[in-house]
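Form 12-C: Joint structure prediction
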Amino acid sequence: MLTACVIAAHGRHYLATTGDGKMLHCVTRGKKSDVAVGDSINATPTAKGQAVIESINERRSLLYRSDQYKSKLLAANIDQLFIVVATEPGFSDDLVSRALVAAEAAEIEVHLILNKIDMTDRLEKARERIGFYASLGYPVHEVSATALPDQTLANLMLAVRNRTSVLIGQSGMGKSSLINLLVPGADIATQEISTVLNSGKHTTTYTRMYRIDEDTAVVDSPGFQEFGLYHLTEGMLERAFREFRPYLGHCRFYNCHHLTEPGCAILDAVEKGHIAKMRHQLYRQLVHESEQKIY
Ligand SMILES: Nc1nc2c(ncn2[C@@H]2O[C@H](COP(=O)(O)OP(=O)(O)OP(=O)(O)O)[C@@H](O)[C@H]2O)c(=O)[nH]1
Ligand SMILES: [Zn+2]
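Section 2 - Result
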């Protein structure tokens, strides 16, 4: 039996690296696909460079999304999440907050990256919007992958060093450009891996881990348009909105849902402007989603 780290996932096909740096093309038994990039797995070799995954070692963390029917693993054993947004094209506050909530629920640190600060006519507006998240206590890194590559690399390298980080972002924010700065040749490695996992079709619609040094790795995940969080329970949700925490336990009813109840400390804080309406609306939507879950 071999132990290896999963570095790319595509359907039921996985690429993993062993301690001595060998690549293994792995599959799961049956239809199972509960393995994530970043997982440490035990596998039985079947042919040269090939193996079947037998078990997954205990995870330090697991970041995932979900829809009504099932969960979609993003990455395992990661320390921090970077949400990439840009001055242009516009980003979605709904998606940013959903990613923040997912990271909080997984107890992973989370940072925001504001890319394309060279687009100065859009900068002020973007700063204002991103400033809201900074006010919640999330670190924000202002960068430009193309106009300020050296400064950007130095800034991000400090933030990712000695940790395993995952980058996510909507399409067009410049996530690939940032990954290529951090990991020179990442795009070529990605094409090679598509060849193995996807029999030649060039696609980047899979999650991929790059090792920068022994203690540093970054995970690139496909651009996304939606971020379902059906798996989070109400109890997890109220804590995942970090600005709610000081008010929890101060509602009139101990089992308050913070939706319509009289004497609700959260609703009172929204009313007074201490909690943003936008965030409470998302909380309401997510409570609704968690009730729709059918798995
Ligand atoms: N002006 C400017 N353009 C940038 C910057 N970073 C990336 N871009 C451009 O933005 C476009 C999108 O960049 P990508 O790196 O492909 O973006 P992505 O987020 O990976 O997008 P997908 O591949 O669609 O997921 C490209 O045309 C880049 O050249 C930047 O700092 N400033
Ligand atoms: Zn309440």
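Section 3 - Comments
The chain has a mean pLDDT of 92. The pocket of zinc ion (ligand 2) is lined by residues 251, 256, 258, 261, 264-266 (CB under 6 Å).
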